[in-house]
Amino acid sequence: MNIAYGIVAGPLALFYLYAGGMKVSRSRERLRPMMAWVDRMPLPAVRALGTVEILGAAGLILPPLTGIAPWLALAAAIGFVLLQIGAIAVHLTGEDRRITLNVGLIATAAVVGWSATTWL
């Protein structure tokens, strides 16, 4: 795995692992202070989103480390860009208009996707 890729992809994967773990394991009441949008989504959808984030985090790290299907890292990065575009849409249609984190995550996932292409 390229060192530059690991420096950027590692923290991104940790972020999504943490966020996805919270969505999978916490109740709606415990998620509400951090994620105002959970009241507008069915809880199974929130749980599914958390599962996707956990799998995407694994997709950023495991393929480059093992050398098995390294194209999955690029797919995970593209998936995270698309996920955050959807998240921005959810934030803008609700009362919560804070999208700075989402824009930063899009930029980080784009850099990870670009750097993943250097060693594919």
Radius of gyration: 15 Å
What is the total tally of β strands? 0
Instruction: Please give the alpha-carbon distance between the first and last residues.
Output: 10 Å
**What is the H-and-E element order?**
HHHHH
Could you name the ranges where pLDDT drops below 50 across 5 or more consecutive residues?
none
Tally of helical runs: 5
Helix content: over 70%
Mean pLDDT: 93
Largest sheet: none
Strand content: under 5%
**Whole-number total of structural domains:** 1
Helix- and strand-based class?
mainly alpha
Shape: globular
Write a concise synopsis of the structure shown.
By secondary structure, the protein is an all-alpha fold. The protein has five helices and no strands.
Please characterize this protein's 3D structure.
The protein is mainly alpha-helical. It is built from five helices and no strands. α1 packs antiparallel against α3 and α3 packs antiparallel against α4 (71-93).
